[in-house]
Specification:
heterodimer; A: 632 residues; mainly alpha; two-stranded antiparallel sheet; 2 strands; B: mainly alpha; 2 domains; 3% strand; globular
C-alpha cells in the first residue's frame, strides 16, 4: 500500500527544483548572484533528502510508488496520463541526479561567481534537474519524452550560455538538432508501441510483451528507441555534438554532458529491457555500435589537447562501453557503470573546471603542467578520479568496468571482449596522459596558478570519496561472495530490469583481471615516460603524420557530415527555392498576373473598390453558371 | 439564438465602429471584443451543460425560392474554432501601429471578417456557408491593399485571383450537388445528394471543393499566393490570414468536402495524404532558404497546416482530434511568432535575418519570450505545439508508418531553420543600441506564452469540447458507407 504522504514526497522530489527555478526567475536579481546559487542548491538538496528519506522508509522501492495526477491528453483511446513512478531503477537514477546534481550546484556557486548571467545559469540548471527527474520518473513513454526533450532544451540553453560567442551558440544548435534526429526515432518507436499495445504505460506494456512474444516487432521497436538513444547518449553516428557541447560552462559539462543527461539513453534501454531481451538482433546492433563508438572516441581522446575535449571523448567512450554492456544483455552492468561513472566523471570535470578556474580560463594541456604543487586538493582528487576511470582497484571504476568485461567474456563474444579490453587500456593511457600533462613536469603557463576556493574543492572531496566507495555495491562474486555482499546492486535491481550475472571459474576471473591490470599498468608507465616530464610546449604541436592527424580531427566526421548532409541539403533547398518555387510557381503566376492585369485594365472600371460592384460580379458569375446548368 | 448574436454582432459592430471618433475607436473596439468573449463563454458553458442546448442552433427560412435557410449550429468541433476566433480577435485588434491613421476603417474590416468567419464555422447550409466564405475574403483583400507594403497591389491581385479561382470551383461543385438530388441547401441534404452521385461526378465535385480549400490552407502546389501575401500585408492582415483564414480551408475539408463525396474521398485519400506530406517537406525545405523573418514564419506555418490536412485526410478519431487541437494552438503560436517578428522589425528597422544579430543583448526579456514561442512552433513538449503534433503524427503512423516518418523529418528541419534564424538574429555580439521591449508588449507576449503553456499542460481543456462530437460525427458517416 502506498500512502498519500509517500505520493506527496514523490511529487516534492520533482517540484523542489522547479520551484527553485521559478523563485530565481521572479525574485529581483542580486548583483553577486549568491542568493540564486543558494536557492538553486538548496532546492536540489531538498530533493535529494526527500529521495533518501523515501528510499529508506520505502525499503529501497521494492514496491514501486506511483502517483497519477491527471490525464495529460489522449489520442483516440490511447490515454497519456501525467503519472510518475519510482521503482528500483528510477530510484537509483533519482539519487544520482539529485546527489551529484547538488554537489555540482554547490560547486557552481564558486565557479560561476562574478559571471553576469549567474542568475540565469541557476534557473537553467534547476530546470534541467526538474526535466531530468521527469525523464526517469515518468511512467509512460510520452511523459518520458517530455523529460527527454526538456533536458535537451536546457542543454541547448546552457551550451549556448555565453551567447555572445557565435561558436558557442552554433554548438548549442548542433546539439539540439542532432538530438532531434534521434528523437524522431524515439517518437516512431513510441508510435509503433501505441499501435500494437494500445497503451504507452510501462506497467501495461511490459506484461503484454511477456505474454505474447513477437521478435520482429520487438526488434523494430528496439531499434527505433535505440536511434533516440544514439542522439541523447552521443553514440555513432550522432556523437559529434558532445565534444562541441563543451562550450558550456564546466559544471554544465559535468552535470549534463557527463553524469546525467547523456546516460538517458542507457536508462531508456534498461527501462525497456523486457523489449530488448526479445530482440537479439537489436541487442547485437547496440553491442557493436557501442563498441565502435567506445573505440573511436578513445582513440580520438589520445590526441586531444583541450582538457575538456579529452574528457568529452572519454565520456563518449565510456557511454559506448555501457551500450556494449546493454548489447550483451548486461543491463545491470550498464546501470552500475552509469552510477560509478557519474561520480568519477563529474569529479574529473569539476577538477578540470578547478584547473581552468585556477589558470583563468586556460583549457589547453600544452599550457599547463606542474600544477601538483599549486593545486594540491585539485590534484589529489583528480588523481583519484583518474585511478577510478582507469579501472585500478579498489576504485569504483574497477568494479563496474570489470563487470562489463566479464559480461562480454561470459557471452563468449571474444571479439567484443577484446575491443572492450582495448578501450579500457586506452582509457588508462589518455587519462594518465592528461594527468601528467596537467599536474606533472614544469609549468608551461605564464600566469600564476592558484587553488580554487573551498566551496569548489569540498564537492571534489566528496566526489572523490564516492569514487572510492561506490564500487563496493557491485563487488564481483570472487571478492564479495565469501563475505556475502557480492552484487548488491544487482540484488537491488532484480525484478526491475533484466540482467546477466556471469559466473566464471575463479581461476579464469583472476586471470582476466590480471591481464587487464598488467596492460593498464603498462599504459600508465608509457604515459609517464612520454608526458610526465615535459618542460616546454614546443614538442607538442598538432600531430603531423596522417593517421594521427585523422584521429586529431576526430576522423573528419564533422567534415564528412557537412559534405554529405549539410551541403547537399542546402544545395537542394536552394534549388527547390530558386528553380521550383520562384521559377515555376512565382513566374507562371506573374505571367497569369500580367495577362490578367491587362484584361483587368478593361475590367478595372467595374472594380472601383466599391463593394457593390463585387456583389454584382458575383451574382453575374453565379447566373452564368446557373444558366449553364439549366441549358444542359 | 445566442449563436446568431455571436455572428451578427461583429457584422453590426463593423458598421457602428465607422462612426466612432478615431481617438477612442481602439478602446471601444477592444471593449466590444470582450462582449464576444462573454458570448463565446456563454455558448461554451451551454454546450458543456447540454450538447443540444437550444442556444447553439438557429434555423429559419432565408431564400424560399431556392430552399436556402439561415441555418447555423455549433458543436464541439466548431466551438473550438469559434473559441479561437474570439480569443485572437482582441489580440489582433490590440496591435497598434502609428502608420495606421484610419483605425476605424481597419477595425471595421477586421470586425466584418470576424463575423464572416464565425459564420463559416457555424453554417449548416450550403449557400450560407458559401456566402460567409466569400464575405470573409473581401475585408482581408482591402486590408492588404490599403495598408500593405510597396508590393501590395501586385501581391494582393495574386492573392485575390487564387482565392477567387478556388471560390468559383467550389460554387460550381455546390450548385452541382444541389441540382442533382438535393431537396434544399441544408448540409444533411447536400451530404445525401453528394453521396448519391456516381463516382465520376463525385470526383469532379471533390476537385471543385478541394481546390478552394487547398488554396486557402494552403497546400503545395496551391500555395503561390501565401509567402508574398504574408510578407506584404500589414501585421493585422498577416495575423488574420495566417491564424484564422487558413483554418477555414481545413474546416472545409472536415465539414464539407470529405462527408459530401465519400466515394471520391476513398479514391483520392491516399494521393492527397501523400501530397500533403510532400507539402510538409517542400515547405520545410524552402523555409531553410528564407532570409525574411515573415517569410520564414509563412513557410513554417505552411509546413504545419499541411500536416493538419494530412491528418484530417486519415479520417480517424486520432487524426481529427490532433488536427483540431493543432488548428487552435497553431493559431495562437503563429500569432505570437508574427508578433515577435514585427517587434524585431519595428525596433531595428530591418527584416532580413542576416542583417540582424546580437539582439539578445539588447532585449533579454523579449528573447526569452521569443525562444519559448519558437519552441512551441517546433513542438517542444509542454508547449501547446506538442500534443496536437504528436497526435497527428500518430494518426498518420496508423495510416502508413513511412509517411509519418517522412512528415516527422519536418520536425527536424523545423528545428534547423528556426534555431538557425534565432541564432543569427539573437546571438552574437551586440549590434544595436535600442533597449528591451515596452511593458505593453511584454504583457502581450506574456499572454501568448501563457496560453502556450496552459494548453501545453492541459490540452484536455479543448479535448473535453470536441471529443464527443468527433466520435458522433465520424460514426454518422461510417454507418452510411
Amino acid at each position: 500500500m502506498v500512502s498519500t504522504s509517500m505520493e506527496a514526497a514523490l511529487l516534492l522530489i520533482l517540484l523542489f527544483p522547479l520551484l527553485g527555478s521559478i523563485l530565481n526567475s521572479v525574485l529581483p536579481k542580486t548583483s553577486d548572484g549568491a542568493r540564486s546559487g543558494n536557492i538553486a542548491s538548496i532546492s536540489v538538496l531538498l530533493s535529494f533528502i526527500t529521495a533518501i528519506v523515501l528510499f529508506i522508509t520505502h525499503g529501497g522501492f521494492k514496491q514501486p510508488v506511483e502517483v497519477l495526477l491527471f490525464e495529460w491528453f489522449h489520442i483516440g483511446n490511447l490515454s497519456i496520463p501525467m503519472q510518475f513512478n519510482l521503482d528500483a531503477l528510477s530510484g537509483l537514477f533519482v539519487l544520482i541526479i539529485t546527489g551529484i546534481g547538488f554537489l555540482i550546484h554547490w560547486y557552481s556557486k564558486g565557479y560561476m561567481a562574478g559571471d553576469a548571467g549567474i542568475n540565469r545559469f541557476f534557473i537553467y540548471l534547476n530546470l534541467f534537474i526538474f526535466f531530468m527527474l521527469m525523464l526517469v520518473m515518468a511512467s509512460n513513454y510520452v511523459l518520458m519524452f517530455v523529460g527527454w526533450e526538456g533536458v535537451g532544451l536546457c542543454s541547448y540553453l546552457l551550451i549556448g550560455f555565453w551567447y555572445q560567442k557565435e561558436a558557442y551558440s552554433k554548438a548549442a544548435n548542433k546539439a539540439f538538432i542532432m538530438n532531434r534526429i534521434g528523437d524522431l526515432g524515439f517518437l516512431l518507436g513510441v508510435m509503433l508501441m501505441g499501435k500494437y499495445f494500445g497503451s504507452l504505460n510501462f506497467t501495461e506494456i511490459f506484461p503484454l510483451i511477456t505474454d505474447s512474444p513477437n521478435e520482429d516487432l520487438m526488434t523494430a521497436i528496439g531499434l527505433l528507441l535505440f536511434i533516440g538513444a544514439t542522439g541523447k547518449s552521443a553514440q555513432l553516428p550522432l556523437f559529434t555534438w558532445l565534444p562541441d557541447a563543451m562550450a558550456g560552462p564546466t559544471p554544465v559539462s559535468a552535470l549534463i554532458h557527463a553524469a546525467t543527461m547523456v546516460t538517458a539513453g542507457i536508462y531508456l534501454i534498461a527501462r525497456s529491457s523486457l523489449i530488448y531481451i526479445q530482440a537479439p538482433v537489436a541487442l547485437d546492433i547496440i553491442l557493436y555500435t557501442g563498441l565502435a563508438t567506445a573505440l573511436i572516441a578513445a582513440v580520438i581522446a589520445v590526441y586531444q589537447f583541450d582538457i575538456k575535449k579529452v574528457l568529452a571523448y572519454s565520456t563518449v567512450s565510456q557511454l559506448g562501453l555501457m551500450f556494449a554492456a546493454l548489447g550483451a544483455g548486461g543491463f545491470n552492468a550498464a546501470v552500475f557503470h552509469v552510477l560509478t561513472h557519474a561520480a568519477f566523471k563529474a569529479l574529473l570535470f569539476l577538477g578540470a573546471g578547478s584547473v581552468i578556474h585556477g589558470l583563468e580560463g586556460e583549457q589547453d594541456l600544452r599550457k599547463m603542467g606542474g600544477l601538483k604543487k599549486a593545486m594540491p586538493a585539485t590534484y589529489a582528487t583528480f588523481l583519484i578520479g583518474t585511478l577510478a576511470i582507469s579501472g585500478i582497484p579498489p576504485f569504483a571504476g574497477f568494479f563496474s568496468k570489470d563487470q562489463i568485461l566479464m559480461t562480454l567474456f561470459g557471452k563468449t563474444e571474444y571479439l567484443s571482449f577484446g575491443i572492450a579490453l582495448l578501450v579500457s587500456v586506452l582509457t588508462a593511457f589518455y587519462m594518465f596522459r592528461l594527468l601528467f600533462l596537467c599536474f606533472f613536469g614544469k609549468s608551461r603557463n605564464e600566469g600564476h596558478a592558484h587553488e580554487s576556493p573551498s566551496n569548489m574543492t569540498a564537492p571534489l572531496v566528496i566526489l572523490a570519496g564516492l569514487s572510492i566507495v561506490l564500487g563496493f555495491i557491485g563487488l564481483p562474486h570472487l571478492f564479495g561472495h565469501p563475505i556475502g555482499v557480492d552484487h548488491l546492486l544487482d540484488v537491488y535491481l532484480a525484478g526491475t530490469i533484466q540482467m546477466v550475472s556471469p559466473h566464471l571459474p575463479v581461476s579464469q576471473e583472476l586471470l582476466l583481471m590480471g591481464v587487464t591490470l598488467t596492460l593498464v599498468a603498462l599504459m600508465i608507465y608509457l604515459a609517464y615516460r612520454k608526458y610526465a616530464n615535459i618542460a616546454e610546449d614546443k614538442n607538442m604541436v598538432a600531430p603531423v603524420d596522417l593517421p594521427q592527424r585523422i584521429a586529431f580531427h576526430k576522423f573528419y566526421l564533422d567534415e564528412v557530415y557537412d559534405a554529405v548532409v549539410t551541403r547537399n541539403l542546402n544545395m537542394f533547398s536552394g534549388f527547390v527555392n530558386k528553380w521550383i518555387d520562384e521559377g515555376v510557381f512565382s513566374n507562371s503566376l506573374s505571367f497569369t498576373g500580367r495577362s490578367v492585369r491587362e484584361l483587368g485594365l478593361v475590367a478595372r472600371k467595374l472594380q472601383t473598390g466599391n463593394v457593390g460592384s463585387y456583389f454584382f460580379a458575383m451574382v453575374i458569375a453565379m447566373c452564368v453558371i446557373l444558366v449553364y446548368f439549366i441549358i444542359q | 439564438m445566442l449563436t446568431n448574436v455571436l455572428i451578427l454582432f461583429p457584422l453590426l459592430f463593423a458598421m457602428l465602429v465607422r462612426v466612432v471618433p478615431n481617438k477612442i475607436v481602439w478602446s471601444v473596439s477592444l471593449g466590444a471584443s470582450l462582449f464576444q468573449i462573454f458570448i463565446t463563454s456563454l455558448l461554451v458553458y451551454n454546450f458543456v451543460d447540454s450538447a443540444d442546448h437550444p442556444s447553439l442552433t438557429s434555423k429559419f427560412l432565408w431564400i424560399e425560392s431556392i430552399g436556402a435557410y439561415w441555418n447555423v449550429a455549433l458543436d464541439g468541433m466548431s466551438l473550438i474554432m469559434v473559441g479561437l476566433v474570439t480569443l485572437l480577435l482582441p489580440l489582433v485588434l490590440v496591435v497598434r501601429k502609428n502608420a495606421i491613421s484610419e483605425t476605424h476603417n481597419l477595425h471595421s474590416l477586421i470586425w466584418w471578417m470576424t463575423g464572416a468567419m464565425y459564420g463559416v464555422f457555424a453554417a449548416e447550409d450550403g449557400l450560407l456557408f458559401y456566402t460567409f466564405w466569400e464575405f470573409s475574403l473581401i475585408p482581408i483583400y482591402f486590408i492588404c491593399l490599403k495598408w500593405g507594403d510597396a508590393d501590395r497591389v501586385k501581391v494582393t491581385l495574386k492573392f485575390f485571383l487564387y482565392t477567387l479561382a478556388g471560390s468559383l470551383t467550389m460554387l460550381a461543385s455546390l450548385i452541382y450537388v444541389y441540382l442533382n438530388g438535393s431537396s434544399d441547401w441544408s448540409i444533411d441534404a447536400l451530404y445525401q445528394a453528394g453521396a448519391g452521385l456516381n463516382p465520376i461526378e463525385q470526383q469532379w465535385v471533390f476537385i471543385g471543393f478541394f481546390l478552394a480549400f487547398a488554396i486557402k490552407i494552403p497546400i503545395v502546389p496551391f500555395h503561390g499566393w501565401q509567402p508574398d501575401t504574408y510578407q506584404s500585408s500589414p501585421l493585422q492582415g498577416t495575423l488574420l490570414l495566417s491564424t484564422l483564414m487558413g483554418k477555414m480551408g481545413l474546416w472545409g475539408l472536415i465539414k464539407w468536402l470529405i462527408p459530401m463525396t465519400p466515394l471520391a474521398f476513398h479514391m483520392f485519400q491516399n494521393g492527397i495524404i501523400i501530397l500533403c506530406v510532400i507539402s510538409v517537406l517542400y515547405a520545410s525545405i524552402v523555409a531553410l532558404q528564407q532570409n525574411e523573418i515573415k517569410r520564414l514564419i509563412a513557410w513554417a506555418s505552411m509546413a504545419h497546416v499541411s500536416l493538419m490536412a494530412a491528418s484530417i485526410f486519415v479520417w480517424q478519431k486520432e487524426g481529427l482530434e490532433g488536427s483540431l487541437l493543432q488548428m487552435f494552438n497553431h493559431g495562437v503560436i503563429t500569432l505570437a511568432l508574427f508578433y515577435c517578428a514585427s517587434i524585431i522589425t519595428n525596433k531595428s528597422g530591418l527584416s532580413k535575418i542576416s542583417e540582424l544579430g546580437g539582439l539578445r543583448n539588447n532585449m533579454p526579456s523579449f528573447s526569452g519570450f521569443f525562444l519559448w514561442i519558437l519552441m512551441a512552433s517546433i513542438a517542444l513538449p509542454f508547449t501547446s505545439g506538442f500534443p496536437g503534433e504528436f497526435s497527428m503524427l500518430y494518426a498518420l503512423y496508423q495510416y502508413q508508418p513511412i509517411l509519418a516518418a517522412l512528415a516527422g523529418l519536418g520536425t527536424i528541419l523545423g528545428a534547423v531553420y528556426m534555431l538557425r534564424a534565432y541564432h543569427q538574429m539573437m546571438h552574437g555580439d551586440s549590434k544595436f543600441t535600442f533597449h528591451d521591449i515596452h511593458q505593453n508588449n511584454k504583457a502581450l507576449l506574456a499572454v501568448g506564452s501563457g496560453l502556450i503553456l496552459l494548453f501545453g499542460i492541459f490540452p484536455n481543456l479543448l479535448g473535453i469540447l470536441s471529443d464527443e462530437t468527433i466520435v458522433q460525427y465520424l460514426s454518422q458517416f461510417s454507418s452510411n458507407q
